[in-house]
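note to self — DONT lose this again. spent like an hour looking for the file last time. sequence + predicted structure for the chain T wanted, 462 res
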Amino acid sequence: MSSSTHSQDSADGVVLGSKSQVAQEFDGHEPVISVSQVTKCYHTYQKPIHRLWQSFNSNKKYYQEFWALKGIDLEVKKGETVGIVGKNGSGKSTLLQIIAGILQPTSGEFETRGRISALLELGAGFNPEFTGMENARLNASIMGLTRDEFHQKLPDIVDFCGLGDFLHRPVKTYSSGMFVRLAFAVAINMNPDILIVDEALAVGDVRFQRKCFRRLEQLKEQGVSILFVTHSTESVLKYCDRAIMLDEGELKMTGSPKQVVQAYLEMMFDSDVVVDQPVAIEAGDYAVDFDPTIDNCTTQPTYNANEHRWGDARAKICHYQVLQNGAITNGLVQRGDQIKIRASVLFEHDIDDLIYGITVKMNDGNQIYGTNSRLKGNLKPSQRAGDLISIEFSLTLNLLAGDYFISLGVAQDHQVKDNVAIDRRYDMIHLHVSETQEAFGVVDLEGDLNIIEHSTGQRDVL
């Protein structure tokens, strides 16, 4: 198994470590990727001439420093799939390029064990004048495959990418989707120990994406470590063992996919509003049988104490009820039940451009349904401080047996962020759909099966 160790001193910019081959197997518990205090600094110049002046005068700085990475520590185990999330410009792609050996860090060390196959920027590593076949052969050679090994892999590459005669045409004639097909087919067939994917699958068509993720699952079962950047939180929840979140070059969080995705969404839709002192509310002003100034949700039989609640609290979801076919439920429901969720929201500030939403998730965090008042366009968009309103969501539970979690939220429309969170209560409601015998999966499509026999006449028996 090959191993590469790299380090760099930020004081003089000289590479201290170099690649070395280690002909020994490593323990499966030993990390295949180790990153220690890695930083990356870019020099930006206001004018092109400043770059030339800098080359002649090292005693004066004609540039500004941009730190893309700031002291990153990361380990990835053999066979582990790790997703990286973060806003644009947070350093995700820079980190992957350093691990892949394309960039050198400004300081810090990183070590990789095994063959790395990387699918980074669209078309990276391809010569646009070469044909798809020539580029595939070139990439295989760079990865260390012999001519015989490449020809053994070629049928799999051709079959997976599905480009047909386009394989013999210059890649400069390819669409972005064709680029991805070829690049992914080559990357996964290089016998990698580590596979790195940087958002490249986002430009592929839906069917090809599904094909790619099926192959990623197969590689994972074979012990391949996978590190990929994506903005798709659903992919992180479904395919990753662990996730990390970067923000402005710093590693903000590492943990379970669900925890990291929640933190990422909270960061993306957090409010910039400075909240003043709330208006005093008298509970007796409302014709309700609960005190709206306290959280009554926790007393409901369907309440999930492990909910994740966040927002700027300018309004609060203070009460809810779940009705199953017209009666309050304890959370044990049946497939096909009519469910109504009535929630009360108390406003402590004047708020315009309101959005009320609901999401239904499986127990692994994957969303199976969601809607909101902005999509429906049928609710009052503004409320004043002191208002207490009720909203009602109606659902038909066409769900098969399992545990499901319902999130409720109040948000404010935002031109830049899309929306900002006011009170979001993720996974607040827990429902259990009872056992189903005649079907499996998640959604009840009310399928049926019939066997139709066609008479072909009497057969002679010899």
